[in-house]
C-alpha cells in the first residue's frame, strides 16, 4: 500500500465531519471519493494529503507514519501533487512559466513530455485567460505532475468543466494511474465511475 489511513476522525470545533474512517490506496490505483455536498469528501482528501491534521487517527505513506515524516514541506513538494477545482494559475505568467515556477527541476524536455501527454503543448506560451477552462485544468495537472509525485490528490477537479472536458481529465487520470501514479479525487460527479478503479462513498462523515 502506498497510503493507509485508520480511524480517521475529524471535528471542526465541536462538529463531527469524519467519523472513524479507514482508507487505503495501492500504487497506481485511481480512487474516487464521492458523496453529497457536506458529506466530508474534502475533509478526507485534505487529511489524506497531509494538508489538514485529523483530530484522531493514523496515516501512513509507504508504511511510514505521517507524524514521523521529518520534512513535511518536502513531502508536499515532491511526493504528492495537488489539483483544485480552481486551477490557481498566475495570470501574469504564461502556462509554461506557471509550470516552471512550481518545478524543482526546470528540465524543459521533461516538461514538454508532460505538455504532450496532457494534450496542451500548443498553448504553453499563452496566458491563463487566453485558453479554455479545460485547458487551464490540464495545465494545473501538468503543474501537479512536474515534480513526479507518487500520488495526485484532486478536489473537484472537474467542478467547473462540461462533461466532454471532464471526460478528457478522467481519461488522463486513468492513463497516469496505469503508468503508476496513484490518483485520489473527491468529486460530486458520478460519471467518474466509468474511469476509476475504486469508488468510495462518504455519507455523513462515514464511508458507506
Ligand atoms: N473549515 C470548516 N469549519 C467548520 N466546518 C467545516 C469546515 N469545513 C467543512 N466543514 C463542515 O464539515 C462537514 C464536511 O465538509 P466537507 O467540506 O468535507 O464536505 P464535502 O463533501 O467536501 O462537501 P462539498 O462537496 O460541498 O465540498 C460539513 O458539515 C461542513 O459544513
Automatic annotation (TrEMBL):
It is an enzyme of class 3 (hydrolase). SUPFAM superfamilies: P-loop containing nucleoside triphosphate hydrolases. GO terms for molecular function: ATP binding; ATP hydrolysis activity. It holds the Pfam family ABC_tran. Keywords: ATP-binding, Hydrolase, Lipoprotein, Nucleotide-binding. It comes from the Bacteria. InterPro entries: AAA+_ATPase, ABC_transporter-like_ATP-bd, ABC_transporter-like_CS, P-loop_NTPase. Its EC number is 3.6.3.-. Residues 3-208 form the ABC transporter domain. The keyword Chloroplast does not apply. Belongs to the ABC transporter superfamily. This is Lipoprotein-releasing system ATP-binding protein LolD.
Amino acid at each position: 500500500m502506498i497510503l493507509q489511513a485508520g480511524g480517521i476522525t475529524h471535528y471542526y470545533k465541536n462538529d463531527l465531519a469524519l467519523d472513524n474512517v479507514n482508507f487505503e490506496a495501492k500504487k497506481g490505483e485511481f480512487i474516487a471519493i464521492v458523496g453529497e455536498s457536506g458529506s466530508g469528501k474534502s475533509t478526507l482528501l485534505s487529511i489524506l494529503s497531509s494538508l489538514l491534521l485529523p483530530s484522531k487517527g493514523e496515516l501512513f505513506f509507504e508504511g511510514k507514519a505521517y507524524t514521523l515524516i521529518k520534512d513535511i514541506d518536502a513531502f508536499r513538494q515532491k511526493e504528492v501533487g495537488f489539483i483544485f477545482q480552481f486551477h490557481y494559475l498566475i495570470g501574469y505568467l504564461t502556462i509554461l512559466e506557471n509550470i516552471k515556477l512550481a518545478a524543482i527541476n526546470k528540465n524543459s524536455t521533461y516538461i514538454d513530455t508532460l505538455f504532450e501527454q496532457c494534450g496542451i503543448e500548443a498553448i504553453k506560451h499563452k496566458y491563463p485567460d487566453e485558453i479554455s477552462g479545460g485547458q487551464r485544468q490540464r495545465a494545473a495537472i501538468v503543474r501537479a505532475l512536474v515534480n513526479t509525485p507518487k500520488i495526485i490528490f484532486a478536489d473537484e477537479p472537474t467542478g467547473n468543466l462540461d462533461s466532454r472536458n471532464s471526460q478528457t481529465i478522467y481519461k488522463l487520470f486513468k492513463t497516469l494511474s496505469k503508468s503508476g501514479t496513484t490518483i485520489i479525487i473527491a468529486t460530486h460527479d458520478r460519471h467518474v465511475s466509468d474511469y476509476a478503479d475504486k469508488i468510495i462513498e462518504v455519507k455523513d462523515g462515514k464511508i458507506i
